[in-house]
Design goal:
By secondary structure, chain A is mainly α. Chain A has 16 helices and no strands. The chains are: A mainly alpha, B mainly alpha. At the A-B interface, α1, α5, α6, α7 and α8 of A face α1, α3 and α7 of B. Bound molecules: protoporphyrin IX containing FE and copper (II) ion (CU).
């Protein structure tokens, strides 16, 4: 130790000991601190959540009644496309990255992320990407309108905004890959003594696997959109049958990315839920190692099921069969997780604070989405469901009361740790009930619409669909405005309130290192590594 | 504290205070891409922005890397930091592997499925019958409409494997050997071997790029083979082009490592940059073998 102390004085006497954050705006631009960067990610995510949400309300406004009322069809399509891109890449992914930044170093007993400068860059690419994407709204020909999947040949008809869309994806992709590299490296290399891999909190485990998925599939997406770019501007024929290519090739490349991507959006949620349920059931997580293996198998399986998005495109029968069975297989590890959460609650001494409410709602409603997924995984059945509102219902069940609820649960769970103040529990519960009821009013009727044959991504519909659509729109507006309450609750907790203890939740210090640090934790979290028994 | 301690001492893990270059990088990259997009949309401002963006990016990389090199020379990085760098590099290369996988996937898909189907094979008889009657399943192809590719003979010629590409294979394989030889020199504290090995590697790398440029020139001027020559031209130029770009980047990377070796920056237990460059180089090498087999040869 004395040797190391001497080195300090010689070379880097200024790099830890001391001090809190720098002052002013530039603190946030230059920061290398994992908590600062986590905060930046989460604020960005909230902003994008609001923007993407506003776009969803434009969609629901137009769909409130049959006929064309408020927007023209082109703009409607721009809204569906941007809504999806913004929610996926702007709201959900950055929120998880923010929580990873904040929590992973703390949860594994590390001083910070392994590569702090890279961490800064991962974040600071995002605002540039989003401004670029948003600017497409004002371009000749409007924003991209071919759907978030950007299928050719339709997407090749996009106007001036086309290259900007592609480059946005490149920028966001680079950002995600760098963040993923950082997270994996941090977990593999920065764990405190005694923190073996099989002691990692599940949020950390799920993020390791998510990071692996990101590293593997974001480059494929980047490659696919690069081919779109060269097909449009440089005369290549990747997706042009006349030149020997095939538009379906794009679908394969996209979904090779796209299906793991949906797991990128859900695995960290599994992690958050697996942190929260044991705390409020006051029991250790049931079946820890099976949770780890289930997560890993979901991650691996997610690479080999992609074409269940393409059942109607004309694949050979062997492909239809293979992808049907492979997809159904994913339900097994997913089921393991659901059973483990329920077993964790079984005979626990449960209390129902807001994070737990969201977690329980997650378990129930995500499972709903999983069931509809299972229905669609059967290719002959999916011929009926494909491109209808049934799918819209499916993925919104897994993404809103799934991923988004997990994010809200995580926010309530860790907010006292982040800010040092308890949030307003009464308002939190109100937010929960408003959100949960409205999310079901919004998305449940969409199952019926889809089964009855209402196509997705079309701004007008037959009058027979009017009633369910009206319900759905009402639900969406209540949901949207309820989120203002969420923001209010967060701001209120940031500004003060009842002081949070270190442990925050009764008995939580048994459930993770984060509850052993003060609330809020010092600027540099674990200056001395904890020893994990 | 550059020992091989396995228990992490959080105090000793170097944490930079401030990162001034990332934001510069974001500005540079955005400027470059906005410029490129404008260029593609036919706006005159495009090329200027692209130049500016590139300049900013070069400035950013020079600045960022020198900062890291300074810190490394000051002895700030302990063994654990070194491992972080190594892991970072390995995962970065992994992501690159998947980037190439997308283009190899496109090649396999079109060769195994798309082209035969267009020719009416398997269950796709009616496709062949109704859409492009008479189109044959052959490779290389520029598709049923013979898109692009009119050479002096009225059609395009595919690139053979046994001319420049075979020579280039030898070049890259030997450069893999020379870089390993240089590495041995570093381990043995043999400066001469290190430097000669690196010079040879860099020279072979640039020679490869030069020969590839000649090959492209011939393709464009004499063989009617361009990026626009149907699916064959698309896969050929995108795969070999991205590979060539990676060879160029790798060679520049090795050149920097060479310059740093000349200044004596590396020790036998302290040369992350050298190893990162070498790993990258081997990766580029392996991709080339895939290209040689599947793009040129088979
Ligand atoms: C039990 C697990 C799941 C199964 C079996 C499953 C199955 C499917 C299938 C077969 C489709 C394609 C339907 C069609 O286009 O005809 C689909 C679409 C979709 N799924 Fe899932 N899914 C599952 C879980 C998830 C999860 C966890 C997410 C995200 C959090 C998700 C997000 C989506 C999205 C976004 C789409 C629509 C993509 C689009 O066409 O725009 N799914 N799912
Ligand atoms: Cu899927």
């Amino acid at each position: 130790m004395s040797a190391s102390a001497a080195t300090h004085d010689d070379h880097h006497d200024d790099h830890h000991d001391d001090h809190g954050p720098a002052k002013g705006f530039m603190r946030w631009v230059y920061t290398t601190n994992h908590k600062d960067i986590g905060t930046l990610y989460m604020i960005t995510s909230l902003i994008m959540f609001m923007i993407g949400g506003a776009m969803a309300l434009v969609i629901r406004l137009e769909l409130f009644e049959p006929g064309m009322q408020y927007v023209d069809p082109g703009f409607f399509n721009q809204m569906t496309t941007l809504h999806a891109l913004i929610m996926v890449f702007g709201a959900v992914m950055p929120a998880f990255a923010g929580m990873a930044n904040w929590m992973i170093p703390i949860m594994i007993g590390a001083p910070d992320m392994a590569l702090p400068r890279l961490n800064n860059w991962s974040f600071w690419l995002l605002p540039f990407g989003f401004v670029m994407l948003a600017s497409t709204l004002f371009m000749e020909g409007g924003a991209p309108a071919a759907g978030w999947t950007l299928y050719p040949p339709l997407v090749l008809q996009t106007g001036d905004s086309f290259p900007f869309t592609i480059f946005t994806i490149h920028i966001l992709g680079i950002s995600s890959i760098m963040a993923a590299i950082n997270i994996i490296t941090t977990v593999l290399n920065m764990r405190a003594p005694g923190m073996t891999m099989m002691k990692l909190p599940l949020f950390v485990w799920t993020w390791v696997i998510t990071a692996f998925l990101l590293i593997a599939v974001m480059p494929v997406f980047a490659g696919a959109v690069t081919m779109l770019l060269t097909d449009k501007y440089f005369g290549t024929s990747f997706f042009n049958a006349a030149g020997g290519g095939d538009p379906v090739l794009y679908q394969h490349l996209f979904w090779f990315f796209g299906h793991p991507e949906v797991y990128i959006l859900i695995l960290p949620s599994f992690g958050i839920i697996s942190q929260i349920i044991p705390t409020f059931a006051r029991k250790p997580l049931f079946g820890y190692s099976s949770m780890v293996y289930a997560t890993a198998s979901i991650g691996l399986l997610s690479f080999v099921v992609w074409a269940h998005h393409q059942y109607t495109v004309g694949m050979p029968i062997a492909g239809e069969l293979y992808f049907t069975y492979a997809t159904m297989l994913i339900a097994v590890p997913t089921g393991v997780k659901v059973f483990n959460w329920i077993s964790t609650m079984w005979r626990g001494s449960m209390t129902f604070e807001t994070p737990m409410l969201f977690a329980i709602a997650f378990v129930m409603l995500f499972t709903m989405g999983g069931f509809t997924g299972l229905m669609m995984s059967i290719s002959p059945a999916d011929l009926q469901y494909h491109d209808t509102y049934f799918i819209v219902a499916h993925f919104h069940y897994v993404l809103v009361p799934g991923s988004v609820f997990a994010l809200m649960a995580g926010t309530y769970y860790w907010l006292p740790k982040w800010t040092g103040y308890m949030y307003d529990e009464r308002l939190g519960k109100l937010h929960f009930w408003l959100t949960t009821i409205s999310v079901n009013v919004t998305f449940f009727p969409q199952h019926f619409l889809g089964l009855a044959g209402m196509p997705r991504r079309i701004p007008d519909y037959a009058v027979q669909f009017a009633e369910f659509n009206a319900w759905s729109s009402v639900g969406a507006f209540v949901f949207g405005f309820s989120q203002l309450l969420f923001i209010y609750i967060i701001i209120k907790a940031v500004r003060g309130g009842q002081k949070a203890t270190d442990e925050v939740w009764e008995g939580a210090s048994e459930h993770g290192l984060e509850w052993q640090l003060p609330s809020p934790p010092p600027y540099h979290s674990w200056i001395t590594a904890p020893f994990v028994k | 504290m550059k020992g091989h301690n396995t228990i992490p001492m959080n105090e000793d893990y170097y944490l930079p205070h401030k990162a001034t270059y990332p934001i510069v990088g974001s500005i540079g990259l955005t400027t470059l891409l906005v410029g490129f997009a404008n260029q593609l949309n036919g706006h005159a401002i495009g090329s200027t922005l692209m130049l500016a963006g590139t300049a900013i990016l070069v400035f950013m990389m020079a600045g960022w890397f020198s900062e890291v090199i300074r810190e490394s020379l000051a002895g700030n990085y302990n063994h654990q930091v070194d491992i972080s760098f190594r892991m970072g590099m390995i995962w970065f290369i992994t992501s690159e592997v998947f980037f190439f996988a997308a283009f190899f996937g496109a090649l396999y898909y079109t060769r195994i499925y798309a082209v035969p189907w267009l020719a009416g094979e398997g269950a796709f008889e009616s496709t062949g019958e109704l859409l492009w009657k008479g189109f044959q399943n052959v490779w290389p192809t520029n598709g049923p409409d013979s898109i692009g590719g009119v050479g002096p003979e009225g059609h395009f010629e595919p690139m053979g494997a046994w001319g420049i590409p075979a020579i280039n294979t030898l070049i890259l394989l030997s450069s893999g050997a020379t870089v390993t030889w240089a590495h041995w020199g570093l381990y043995a504290n043999n400066r001469r071997q290190l430097i000669i090995g690196l010079i040879a590697t860099v020279a072979l790398g640039f020679l490869f790029v030069f020969l590839q440029a000649m090959e492209y020139h011939e393709a464009y001027t004499e063989m009617g083979l361009t990026l626009g020559t149907g699916i064959y031209g698309s896969t050929f130029f995108m795969l070999t082009g991205f590979h060539g770009l990676h060879v160029t980047i790798g060679a520049i990377f090795l050149l920097v490592v060479l310059l740093r070796s000349l200044r004596g920056h590396f020790g036998h237990d302290n040369h992350f940059a050298f190893e990162a460059a070498a790993w990258y180089w081997h990766f580029v090498d392996v991709v080339w073998l895939g290209l040689f087999i599947f793009v040129y040869w088979l």
